[in-house]
User: Fold these one by one.
Assistant:
Number 1:
Amino acid sequence: MQILHLRYFVVVAEELHFTRAAERLSMATSPLSRRIRDLERELDAPLFVRAHHDVTLTPAGAALLPLARDVLARFDALPDELRRSVGDTRRSAIVGVAPDVPPGIRDRYLDAVRNRAPGLPVAIHADNTAPLLRAVRAGQVDLAFVHGRVSGSDLVAVRVHTQPAGVAVGRRAGFEGRTSLRLEELAALSYVSINPDAAPSVYRGVETLLRRHGIRRRMELESTSVADLAHVVAGGKAFTFAGLTSGATHKAFAGEPVVVLPVDGARIQLTTDAVWRSDREHPGDVVADLASCVDAVAQDG
């Protein structure tokens, strides 16, 4: 039995809705449902009654919920308990950073930590939004800068940056010399993305936007690296979205026959939030120190 499966079970039990639970966990609904069925097979007991518009706990599920919460709480406390047991009072922190977080945000935040919490070593962990959110919830990352909508009362999310985004399209697709475009002009091309599980809330928003503007063609890469988009877009048969001036996706097209253009008639933005667990803001936890520095980069309003 994997500890991650217990985390998934607790979230589904709290939401009693697989789609909301999947959004809270930053993953797609289908793999979440499979993981729950895997857990039910391991325990040889059904945990949920699944109806078309209703999910309820079975007696076995209701009995497991407090046990699972207790196991997770004790598991998450292991690092601190171990340090106390061996008399290690040194503290360190891990801060997660998603690909399109502007370097200026990262650097100003680290400067704030150095000034306000001197002597606290900080390691940077780079990853996509979804795995970072899972790592924050699991206690493996203390605070993370991520993209898109963050849901769940177990997390605190503070908006730190909003950057305008545009369309990255190959020069040979017919947009050479243009200073902007409308999304409807892209209907003959495919929208290409990395694996949407890297940032589900971002890609759900993109899907809604594309459908509203009549763009139906899709191309989904198995990769979770934005660098892999460059070759596809440069070929002239697909487009994607990228920050207009910065970010890993924008940098992926440097030196490629690709233009990144503003979009007329649609406001496209990429947001960055600082995220941490609400139950770790108490004095003595490094998260309290890290959270106190977010105001140095927080976006007004």
Note: The chain has a mean pLDDT of 89.
Number 2:
Amino acid sequence: MLRRNRSGTVLVILPDISNPFFSKILSGIEEVATRASLTILIGNTNGDDARYANILENLRNGRADGALILNGTAPPDGMLPEGTPIVSISERPEGAGYAHVGTDNQKAAFDATQYLLAQGHQRIAHVTGPEGNALTKDRRAGYIEAMTEAGLTDQICTIPGGFTYGDGERAADHLFAQHPDTTAAFCANDESAMGVIRGLQRQGYSVPGEISVMGFDDVPFSRIFQPELTTVHQARNLIGQRAMEILLDLLEDNTAPAELMYLGHTIVTRNSVARPRS
């Protein structure tokens, strides 16, 4: 049971509510919150600092008891009462001492790149996420680590991208124009990977016949996209559940030490990756 003088509401803060990546995380959060008789209040920042500040007011004025933050940005110093229960999910705010639940993104990107190497690829490009994003940093680091371990530092190739379909399409315009020997592209997420594939197909390239493409996240549409997308699966429903469970603990005892929890990931093999042509 929650302590007295609680609103019975928890705040879930998203950077983009339209992004399908968040759906299963939200489902996991809701499952645990419902069992605890809590109400979920969703705030969508849409990348806007002013909107974020307005959403955080729900914690200042007592309309919400704690927050799950998925936008990777810590509240400004001094804005919230000391000890406000907060758990970050997926993207960990740099320097923040909050409990966190997510995937070890650097290790997952390392494993994804190793998978492509195991298929015989050596000229592997990495289409990055948006600059300044913690996930971008970790996934790029994992790619570089795997290429370095394989003795392929001279083949390291990063192409600026983002997390949207359009970002992937734009990256595809530069891929073969700037790096014509590329045989595989590892993309920072599934949406951008699908954009890369469509952009390459419009240029007349076959995926995976001429170039393999791999994503990250395993969003639902990756299973029905053509070609079906090889990707990194994150346990998103479980991530949401565990984060909500930790927040419940913090609501009961906000002096508990911050917990860092990484849940497992797996490589999902589908049809967008093949061995390179000889």
Note: The first strand starts at residue 9 and ends at 14.
Number 3:
Amino acid sequence: MEMHQLRYFVELARQGNFSRAAEACYVSQPSLSQQIMKLEDELGQPLVQRTRKGARLTHFGETMLPRARRILLEAECIRDEAQAHNDIACGKINLGAIPTIAPFLLPALMERCLAEYPQMELSLVEDTTNDLVSGLRNGRLDFALMSRPFPWENELEARTLFDDELLLTLAESHPLNKRRRIKLEDLAEYPMIVMKDMHCLGRQSISLCESSGLTPKVSIESAQLETVVSLIEGGLGFSFIPKMAAEQMKHRRVGFHSVSPQSVSRAIVLVWANTGSMTRTQRAFHDMVVELSAVPRAL
């Protein structure tokens, strides 16, 4: 069993296609296919099922995939340590973030990363929670910034960074906007605007209302936070906007309010795959994010 065979197998599982996997590994398709067959012959079991559309892992392949990833990660850790010089992290980090976090946290995070680790390559992906979790589980992503709850929590590692308050957001002309205290039950007669179900903020907002005995009258669903705020400005309903977003929207014709009697928030977490160890570059990035999140207004 050779390391390059495991690398080809993991990439084939990621791509689901021999041609794309070969391209990603910088080898010809026949060469990659031959090495996969050699690996299968040595193991005595088929790893992939070849189809007209590409390749699909067999049950045995699904079982072997996490082990192959761990072996490659350990090998990368060894190379990382051997090649380390002057304590500089110089590898690549694939980072994902949900849309209600990305525009508000990533600029400061990237600035700090470039300043502290100029040789670190940071690749960013903005996507929904489900797709980010999928990326973590199949190895496309090293880390993701999201909020709890999220799928497969028991299979992933997560570090809570801070709590982000969810602020009730009303048009300036809304009858409740001038009140100093607003309870959720005060909203019963008003329409609600939410992010679409694929976005966790929409589900969190509805769950927040329902947990207080309020059945929200959802009138509009949107895929963009900016659109939600614009619709609120137009007097079409209320919503809950994360505080990190509200701080950059003070110029908008809306009012932001903490819910009475107890404010509500979402937990912002850094999530990564439970592989048992991290490369030196991954550890440096993890520690930097945790350190940065502990400084008020640093993120």
Note: The chain has three domains: 3-83, 92-162+267-293, 165-265.
Number 4:
Amino acid sequence: MDKLPIGKMAKLNGISEQTLRLYDKMGLITPCEVNEQTGYRYYDIKQCAQLDMIQYMKALGMNLAEIRRRFEENDIQKMRIVLENQKLNIEQKMKELDYAKKALARAIESYQRYEAAPDGNHVILEYLQKRRIFRFETRVNCYSYGMDTYEHILRSLKKNAALQNLPISYFCNVGSIIRKRHAIRNELWATEVFLFVDEEFVSPEGIEEIPEGVYLCMYCDSFQKEEESIRKLFSYIKENDYEIVGDLFSEVLIEFPTVTHYERNAFIKVQVPVKQKSK
């Protein structure tokens, strides 16, 4: 038998002595001999096969407790089932990471739009591409109540079953909808909230596309200024002979870090599709 002291066994396998002691404590791999006088631990070179299996199973995403259970069961059929389940877990994690990557790209784009945004007192005409949203009916007019009610609305949106697998970063880019029938009457009435989703996101209901087209837009740097911006936009449309041709969307571009106060601090873009009235 080729006996190796713990330090040499650890170095030979690219792990620490502390790791070997942990494996021993958990019953994964025990020394073949422990000197009674010195307490020194010795391993058989053939035990490297056990370490290779532990490292292999860790690489497949299993934790040490699960690896120990597989060792104790020593059931090849059950091991196959475990590996199939682990494959499904990894696929789910990859999907979640892909969502997170796309959310980061959207957040970066939102910050770039914030940096390029004009002064909040100006109405600008923009051509906006088609976008995809998940909308949620709250039955509560966002503009009839304060931020406390708005927070409750957002809690309901986040709890929606269809959105449970979305990263939290998606919820920093939300908004509200004033439908065309209310917008053309200059009514601040919005009972639907929304968040942007990707093409891959599937839901049996609630999916809607914001059409591409020409939009009149205003920007503001707080929720407290949002209503004022919408009213200014309505006035501008009337004064400059525009016609509202679709729903008005109030979109949170970015949320600023909230450190010294409770309420949300956000940069908002109000947008409504229009066309010039015929003369």
Note: The first strand starts at residue 3 and ends at 5.
